[in-house]
Structure formats: C-alpha cells, structure tokens
UniProtKB/TrEMBL annotation:
Keywords: Cell membrane, Membrane, Transmembrane, Transmembrane helix. Residues 19-393 form the Major facilitator superfamily (MFS) profile domain. This is MFS transporter. The keyword Membrane applies. InterPro entries: MFS (IPR011701), MFS_dom (IPR020846), MFS_Efflux_Transporters (IPR050189), MFS_trans_sf (IPR036259). It comes from Comamonas piscis. Gene3D superfamilies: MFS general substrate transporter like domains. The keyword Membrane applies. The chain crosses the membrane at residues 20-45, 57-78, 85-108, 114-135, 142-165, 171-194, 215-237, 249-273, 280-299, 305-328, 340-359, 371-390. GO terms for molecular function: transmembrane transporter activity. PANTHER family: CHLORAMPHENICOL EFFLUX PUMP RV0191, PURINE EFFLUX PUMP PBUE. It is a multi-pass membrane protein. SUPFAM superfamilies: MFS general substrate transporter.
Amino acid sequence: MSPSTSTHPQDPARNPWPAVMAAGLATFSVVTTEMLPVGLLTAIAPSLGISTGQAGLMLSLPALLAVVFAPLVVLMAGNMDRRRILAGLLALLVLANAASALAPSWGWMLAARVLLGLCIGGIWAVAGGLAARLVPAAAMGLATSIIFGGVAAASVLGVPMGALIGEGAGWRWAFGVMAVFSALVLGLHLWVMPTLPVRSAVGLRQFLTLRSNRALQAGLWLSLLLVAGHFMAFTFVRPLLLAVSGFDAQWIAALLLAYGLAGIAGNFIAGLAAARRTTLTVAAIALGLLLVPLLWLAFGGSPTGGFVLLLFWGLAYGGVSVALMTWMMKAAPQAMEIAAALYVGVFNTGIALGAWAGGQVVDGWGLQANLWLAAAWAAMALLLSLGLAVTRHHSGSAAKSASPDQIAP
C-alpha cells in the first residue's frame, strides 16, 4: 500500500465482506458501462450516423482518458477520505450513463464517454488496492478476486444483458438501466463502506521513485500487450460472431453470457493460481490469448467452432485483471495505491490502443487481418512472460527474497 494508507482493516470487529462486495459492484458498474457498446455496436453506429470502426471510439476514448485521470485522481485526492472519493465517482457514473442514454448526437455521446473516462480512472485506482485495507492479510487473495471479479461479472451480466435490452427495447434503454443500477451501487456504498482515511497525500515524487522497480515495469508491459491484443479482437466480437461464425443476431446476448460465465471461472482460477505462481499464471493467460485468434482463423467459421472458442476466450481473458493486479501488489507492496494507478493507466492504454487499432484494421483490411494482429500482441506477451519465468528460475534462492526490485514476482 502507498505510504498514505493503512494496510490493515480499521475495525477488526467489523464484518469487512459487505464493503468488499460493494467495491466489487463498483468495478462491475464502471466496467459494464465501459464495455456496454461492445454488445450494442452495430445498433448504435447507424443510429448516430457513424461507421462501425468509428463506433469503436466509444471504447478507446474513455479508456485513453482513464490513463490520465487515474494518477490525477490519486494525486489530487490529497488527504480526502477514499470513501468520499468513491462516492463522488459513482455519482458521476450515474450521470455518464444517463447522458449516454439521452445522447441526441455522436458529439453528445463522446462527451458522456469523456465523463466515463474520469470514473474509470478514479474508481479503478482507488478500488484496486482496497483489499489490503478491508480484510486481514490471509484473506487478501479472495478479496482481490472478488473486487476484480466485478470485471469478469461485467461480461457475464452487464454486456450480454445490455445486448439483450438493446435488442428488445433499443440501445438507449441499456444505458438507462445502467444509470439506475449505478445509483443503487452508490447507495450500497454509502451504507456499508467504512471510512478510508489517509495519513498523508500521495505526491509526484512517490510516482517517480517507482521508475527503478523492474518488476513493476515488467508487469506494466505485460498489461499493455495482453490488454491491447485482447481488445483489438474483442471490440469487434459481435461482427466476428455474425460475419465469420455465422450466428444470427438473436444469439449474441446468450453467447456473451456464456463468454462471461467462462470469464468468472477464469478470474477465480487465475486469482488462486497467481497468489502462488504469478509469472507462470500470466504466461498461461498469454498462451490462451494467443491461441484464441489463431484457432478462430482455422476453426471459427462455424457456429460450433465459434462457440467453443468464445468459451475458451472468456476463460483465458477472465484471469487477466486479477493476475496482473496480483503482480502489481507483489512488485510494489509498500506503494499499492500508486501501483494501482499506474496499472489502471496502462490497462486502459491497452484498451484504447487495441480498440482504436482494431477499428483501423477492420475498416481497412477486415476481421481476419485483425485476428492476426491480435495474435501478434499476445505472442509478444507470451515471450516476455516466459523470459521472465526463465530468469526467475535461474536466479534461484535470490528470487525467494521477494525484493520489490526483482525481475518478476
């Protein structure tokens, strides 16, 4: 944890798990809002008079802005109670969803997604390190999996339910329902989240001191490669399922639900595995994300092949968030809030880069070319993680010291 925060629960007699669940619902809400256009892309684009590639900006723009907002929120928060900050950000999330639902034009929609970028950066940066403040050390692995399980759960319930609502009532209603849900999460947060005071404000100097942390740098590079490669392909999963695998549009919501269920399983499997063998867990995830686009090119041309590969995709990507956050916590245990802010920034850089680059490739060369490029990013992540695993193995007993500046967690 950063020097500004405590690493132990404030009140040992208080049941911390409702607060952990509230934090998980906060990440669920913001990630669902961020990902909602994935299931509605082909409906929103013609309604606002834009191309499918342009519609990808609804993902890349807020993700790119989150890169800036994540460290800014931590720096500007000063000594403010983190509970109040989360409450304010959840209130802004309600506003962003309402504005999206009412958007009369493409410019209005982009403005709403700018506001969402602030929410993404702030909520992830603060909530990412909450496990250490809410539960005892022995329960941190489970608490972290629950908080980041909100990311996987967003795929299970958020994105497919958004697609289902969009099919039945129109895409605007999907954002409207999300505005109401975010308001309910805000109410729960105010009810169960304890005060989260800080001893001192985080400064720019504390960010700069982490430049020499090689483990942290390696984790940030892996985050960029894995997330960018994934979102190059996943941003366009709906047209991929329709045009390549041959599904009817009525199946999209159910398919995304199946993907999300696999993602939740991947989240908890990776969370438990990463607590013991972080580097090898990340390498296994990278291998899975490499195989998905390659196998889709070979076997994804039928509904059966597309369905099986979609499940495998969810299982592989479901562990990304929790495995990489575990890497960050091990790499910088005394500066967790700062590490979380940097992680959020790089993670969302990957989303922005992947969604933007994928849009350019899809518009210029088509969906299959996009799969090849997505595979290339995953291959680079696999090579990096395997290289780090080999380096760690050869370091022998020195690696067991768990120094913050070691090559890999």
